[in-house]
């Protein structure tokens, strides 16, 4: 029997401490991440909104929008994919549907957060969160809806900014009691705060090391030292790709050709290598040859 994505993800957490999760906003970047040796992938809600729809990360994309990107990525790689489910797209029935649909699309698990439906990026000011009871209900709805016992349910708390460390940890503990497999401690400022989360919790804790946010760019050794088990880089490659693309567009416009930026490009051969292009072409050649011999 093939292993479920959720089981693969659980094994990856055990085998890699901390486990790095890199954001892959499309199938091709996911293939590159897999090829260079990453063990787990992440589909960012901000990434789906920004890259696939040109929208800000304000809860404007739908479950179907995200599932489409999940299917594309899981169809192209064998790595487990953790998915950003934002607030779960509604009440208990919607959250249950999110679990089932994401499982069907091939996700290994998701994280669901305690922001109000009108959410924003976790590193922006003035976030509003729902009550602890409501967040616990979200987690319970997700846990009850599992169709694969290994589908990984991560509870994200955005409470630190508004309510402080003790309240955020208390929430996280309540989510664990409700069945969460892990805690995503959002917008944490210091290693000591991570240590406080990991000391208080019996499940793995994820650190979101997103750039230009509230959290310093701690490295894996520092984070492992305070007991963090997963480290997330949700938009790192996306940000770099964007800057590279902008540079190319500007250069073509300014110079009338692309010569100045060719060196910054992945070559055709490199692209084909990641795509296994040549194995397809060999097959095509042999089919053509068979046709001619008839
Ligand atoms: C992790 C995150 O939820 C995402 O959608 O990728 C974002 C990342 C970001 O905006 O930098 C977040 O809210 O932290
Ligand atoms: Mg998000």
From TrEMBL:
GO MF annotations in UniProt: methylisocitrate lyase activity
CDD domains the UniProt entry points to: ICL_PEPM (cd00377)
This protein's pathway: Organic acid metabolism; propanoate degradation
Cofactor dependency: Mg(2+)
Protein keywords: Lyase, Magnesium, Metal-binding
Known role: Involved in the catabolism of short chain fatty acids (SCFA) via the 2-methylcitrate cycle (propionate degradation route). Catalyzes the thermodynamically favored C-C bond cleavage of (2R,3S)-2-methylisocitrate to yield pyruvate and succinate via an alpha-carboxy-carbanion intermediate.
Family affiliation: Belongs to the isocitrate lyase/PEP mutase superfamily. Methylisocitrate lyase family.
Protein's UniProt name: 2-methylisocitrate lyase
Species of provenance: Rheinheimera tilapiae
